[in-house]
From TrEMBL:
<keyword id="KW-0436">Ligase</keyword>
<dbReference type="InterPro" id="IPR002698">
    <property type="entry name" value="FTHF_cligase"/>
</dbReference>
<keyword id="KW-0067">ATP-binding</keyword>
<comment type="similarity">
    <text>Belongs to the 5-formyltetrahydrofolate cyclo-ligase family.</text>
</comment>
<dbReference type="Pfam" id="PF01812">
    <property type="entry name" value="5-FTHF_cyc-lig"/>
</dbReference>
<dbReference type="InterPro" id="IPR024185">
    <property type="entry name" value="FTHF_cligase-like_sf"/>
</dbReference>
<protein>
    <recommendedName>
        <fullName>5-formyltetrahydrofolate cyclo-ligase</fullName>
        <ecNumber>6.3.3.2</ecNumber>
    </recommendedName>
</protein>
<keyword id="KW-0460">Magnesium</keyword>
<dbReference type="InterPro" id="IPR037171">
    <property type="entry name" value="NagB/RpiA_transferase-like"/>
</dbReference>
<dbReference type="GO" id="GO:0030272">
    <property type="term" value="F:5-formyltetrahydrofolate cyclo-ligase activity"/>
</dbReference>
<keyword id="KW-0547">Nucleotide-binding</keyword>
<keyword id="KW-0479">Metal-binding</keyword>
Length: 183
């Protein structure tokens, strides 16, 4: 098994162990407000699974985009979402996604869920390679990895195609990724 696959398996077990714990994330909204204004910005989010941080309600003045699976390509696109529940449908993997495909070329902020991140900004995802391809497709301003504190690890193996995060958001706060740590 590759290093990445092994780590993914270990982290999945760890997440399953922690899933019933009560994570208080009250700090997230204040943290985002203190950081910057998202007013009239385009923000790519995700419909969170129970083990992920749910940020959907924190951007009332932004244009929200969500990943939407396309059968033909078997890949995800980012599609605009009205903010209304009835404009979502269940996609593959049980993840809610916009019914209609409406793309934008430029995305100001992209919040990206992960199984684990390191402080340099490397991400371990679910293993579909979907986000790396999504990030390659659009002009993305700022990439923010999102996870619980226990998912911030010392080091994550990086492959050629992996995108690096600019910031990491967890219940304890926002970290600017430090590329210098690579050496
Ligand atoms: N909320 C959310 N939406 C997201 C992602 C994510 O991580 N979180 N993605 C991030 O890339 C994309 C979906 N990526 C996925 C990649 C692999 C599997 C997958 O292999 N699922 C296994 C079960 C493993 C598991 O529990 O995670 C399966 O369905 O058999 C699912 C989704 C786009 N949307
Ligand atoms: N830009 C890309 N072009 C082609 N193949 C890619 C690309 N990005 C990733 N892949 C392939 O997808 C597979 C999974 O990649 P990886 O382990 O990086 O997934 P991940 O980022 O953890 O998953 P996800 O983004 O779905 O959460 C690998 O086989 C990888 O080669």
């Amino acid at each position: 098994m590759t290093e990445k696959k092994l780590l993914r398996k270990e982290m999945r077990n760890e997440i399953a162990r922690k899933i019933n714990l009560d994570f208080t994330c009250d700090h997230l909204e204040a943290c985002l407000k203190a950081w910057t204004s998202f007013k009239n910005k385009t923000v790519a989010l995700y419909c969170a699974d129970p083990q992920e941080l749910d940020l959907l309600s924190l951007f009332p003045e932004s244009q929200i985009l969500l990943p939407r699976f396309k059968e033909v390509t078997k890949l995800y696109d980012f599609s605009l979402w009205s903010g209304k529940k009835e404009d979502l449908r269940e996609g593959p993997f049980g993840i809610l996604e916009p019914r209609k495909l409406e793309e934008l070329d430029v995305i100001d902020f992209c919040f990206i869920p992960g199984i684990a991140f390191d402080r340099v900004g490397n991400r371990l995802g679910r293993g579909g390679g979907f986000y790396d391809r999504l990030l390659a497709k659009y002009a993305i301003g700022t990439k923010v990895g999102v996870c619980h504190d226990f998912q911030l690890l010392g080091k994550i193996p990086k492959e050629e195609h992996d995108y690096v995060m600019d910031f990491l958001l967890s219940p304890s706060g926002l970290i600017k990724c430090d590329r210098k740590q690579i050496i």
